[in-house]
Amino acid sequence: MALVGVLALQGSFNEHIAALRRLGVKGVEIRKPEQLENVGSLIIPGGESTTMAKLAEYHNLFPALREFVNMGKPVWGTCAGLIFLANKAAGQKTGGQELVGGLDCTVHRNFFGSQIQSFETELSVPELASKEGGAEFYRGVFIRAPAILDVGPDVLVLADYSLSSKELDSIAALQAQNQEENAWSGKKVIVAVRQGNLLGTAFHPELTADTRWHSYFLRMINDVGEGASSSIVAVGAESQQKEQSRNDLPIFQ
Asked: Which of 26, 86, 94, 222 has the largest count of CB atoms under 10 Å?
């Protein structure tokens, strides 16, 4: 029986595992290339993308991650994980960072600014609501978040975000300060996409009580031919009860 892997180098991997557990599914921490052989899908969590990239390089994970993506196995990247999956990244530090690639898009790292520019907002998510039910809006938690500047023709846009005049001025000033070439200009950015076996979100669904994005990802596993009965390990009722009794996660209602 395959497992849902969660890359556990740094960042919010525990929160993703907890969200899967709330859905009755077991996630397993992945830190070494050989561990990918035991899972049929993978979540790359949010965190500090440069640190995660350095740790992934140290553990020689990039070749195995690229092979995993190229094999068509479902992979979901949130925040820093989205940066990992992008074919191109803008706003990089000097020297940049290594990418896994696969998503035909350009992601701007830390698009919204520093930690103090983190925010929450309601996102229109008609595709998510159609597949998973519930409201047509989702509370997105953006923490030092990236944004998707453009996508290729095969990429399905699942959510975008319209910027206020104040945000536009702040981003323009930040780009000028960083002396970015070909600086982005526009009034909205993309914050969630899907391309085949790949899912990317610029925000953190694992930090909310709404598990619909996790359900959507589990549905993707089934879409690529891995039936839920044979590809996902259910958590025992006792483990679920223990998790529900915990209250030590930063879950936003």
From this structure: 86
